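Q: Is it fine to ask for two folds in a single conversation?
A: Yes, each is treated on its own. Send the first.
Q: Here.
A: Result:
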Amino acid sequence: MTHAHFWLCDMDGVLIDAGHQVDGAADFLARLRATGREFLVLTNNSLFTPRQICETLSIHGVAVERERLWTAALATARFVVDQRPAGSAFVIGEPAMHEALAELDYPENPIDPDYVVVGETWTYDFEAITRAVRLIDAGSAFVATNPEPTGTTPDGALPGCGALTALIERATGVAPYVVGKPNAVMIRDALAILGAHSAETVLVGDRMDTDVRAGTEAGIPTILVLSGVATRADLAGAPYQPTRVVDSVRDLIAELEL
């Protein structure tokens, strides 16, 4: 598996965790580069722009170029553009989501949008949530960047995109279409960006419910690292299993040969 030419790597829990570099992350990426492997960092995080994420990774000693990063915000923007090229969206989220749509020249529309797009946000704006509910009731399609109910910070958990969409779903009776992992849409995007085939690719992640499930459904071998969310106890009874389990990406470095 470690001889795969293309690598999809989750970010939180795999490269960085709780405000610090995961043991061996920088050396792991350096080894991928040194052996000519192509890789893409995938993250369901839609709070930050690619530039902000690259800067944060750099601060922690992990160098990732902008073109090697694919976020749930970018994937969601690409999805709505592909589905309804002449459409528009009402957005709840941080500048990262707004910027992703703007880069594709997709207009925002608070009156009669084709989509209500919800991403992670630092501020739960009751007026915006109410508008989202009324727009969905009026027929706008409901799309979310990712399913996680919580995010992690050095100070503890915070409400995630899944928590906000649950509120809107409860009010409307409409469940969102989630673009980020485990949806295979995000994996197909990544394969297309790399020019890769699933048979030549491996996915590294720290969550069973998003990373391992996404790889399984896309037919890609998966490596679960225990440096983030998942523990070995999570494997028991799970309907899908990772192809391999390691403590962290440091365990893979020595195996990455030409």
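Q: Second one now.
A: Result:
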Amino acid sequence: MGPVFWVLIETSITKGFRAAVAFDMGVVFADILFIVATYYGSVKLFLSESNKDGLFVLGGTIIFLFGVYSWLTRSKEEEKIEVTESKHNYFGLAAKGFAINIFNVGVFIFWGGVTIVAGPSTGNDPLNFVTFFAIVLLSYFITDLGKIVVAKQLKVFINEKTIVFVKSLLALILVISGIVLIIGGLEAS
């Protein structure tokens, strides 16, 4: 529910389906870069079986803290980002999606937490790791396509109250997920 979500909805409403898909492709490309960076930054941690339980605790803690941060900032006013590109400037829209996502430190921290948890879970096999994240990113992209399609219908429901409710729900899910991972890592050690 950060800037990417709102720009995706706005782009869909003002510029159409193709423009919103181009914007989202830039976002997905930034996510792929984050995943690759966090994977290569932590690959040595994955290779040691003795680190597995600690990685669940570390990843769970990162996700938990991200959830707490999301909870504490859920009612702050989102900065409205204007999309001014032409409807046919798909490369510009993809670049804007990439830029908005790549400069969001929270996204990097989130993917870092997921990468740290997914590394040991995939058996330290690069093919399993790539398959896992390909499925996650494909699911993410399909979900975004759904958002794009129903954006015009969402317009009537978007107000401050619903934004705070959805942000609160997402933050709670992250906190609970982080706690579950931390407990799982601690119980296994």
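Q: Anything structural to flag on that second result?
A: Two points. The chain has one domain: 3-188. The longest helix spans residues 17-47.
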